[in-house]
Amino acid sequence: MRRYPRPIGCNSTSRPQFPYRKLNICTFATDQGVSGWGYCGFEEEEIRAFVGRQVSDLISLESGTVLEARSIDIALHDLAGKILGLPVWKMLGGTQNTIPIYTGAVYFDELDGEGNDGGGGEPVLDSCAYYAEAGHTHFKLKIGRGHQWMDRSEGDQRDIEITRLVRERFPDAGILVDANDGYEPDGFIRYLEAVADCNLYWIEEPFAETADGLQKLRAAVQKLSPDTLVADGEDRNGRLQDPLGHFGKWQADHIDELFELCQTGLLDVILPDVGAMGFTAWRSIMPRLIDINAQGSPHAWSEPFKSWYAAQIGCAYGNVPIIEGVPGSVDGVNDSNYIVKDGILTLPEQPGFGMDLID
User: Fold this and answer.
1) Which top CATH class is 98-357?
2) Residues 174-191 pLDDT 10s
3) Domain ranges for the chain
4) Distances in Å between the alpha carbon of 12 and those of 98, 145, 166, 192, 241?
5) 179, 188 Cβ separation under 8 angstroms
6) Are 278 and 244 in contact (CB under 8 A)?
7) CA-based, 20 to 30 A from 295: which of 43, 73, 176, 254?
């Protein structure tokens, strides 16, 4: 069971999230007594089909998990690391085990579950302060209140006010903003103009990505906040790959489009989910991103240990500027070897993913 330590409110498109949720994991053991486990969204019958198979038939160090076994991708990487006695990040060639992390849990905390306005930015500031106490110095703020919860102009103004309040209260913080496609290009550029002096670390999913919209945004960023990164690609925009392909639930042509947006300088960072796209898929795209001088940051919401999987990718390839931190715990999982302090995550040296299952 996944549990959040405090309420998670609305974002531009969804209501508050439940503080707990049942999760599926799968475990495998070799005939030599080595075991691995991982987050898994598949049925037990499908998983059992791999019992008795050779590990070497299912995963290789060079290319990851074979397509037929992508349903157990995470568990196989954990198992491989434990067989080799190496943490996954080091098994994949990484040389350092630290990476910047932000908290992704700062939502519309002043609005209730129906979007009714409690007024003011103090609830958001309280949320930031809570996560600062937990070791975070980088905050991702959800914006886009005018998409459905508030009048457009009032919601946009609230986004501006809260961004500025957080910058005032936390002058040294890295501030990221995520609209979940809750703006149109012109409206978002007006928001950016109003917060240009807040030195945003990155802009995430400001609107449904199009080349025209991103060209307008890039011009505004270069003028107003040239150090700000533009990140996109979390949302599949209704383009579901089912059954899973080489890029999980992302269609290959969608991934190609994201690469083209990076090559043309319209995106800096792409964000497909580490669970829905898959660990091996991320392994396959990272060298391609490096070749075109672009970056990736696997989307990790909503399970705490997805952050740790994303961090293993980041430390393995060195092309992830920052990762998404998901607060909370999962019953039966000891992940205490992952340490967040002063906005930096330190990964464990233990083999595999460095997490233990406990009774």
Assistant:
1) alpha beta
2) 999 999 999 999 999 999
3) 21-85, 98-357
4) 32, 6, 19, 17, 25
5) yes
6) yes
7) 73
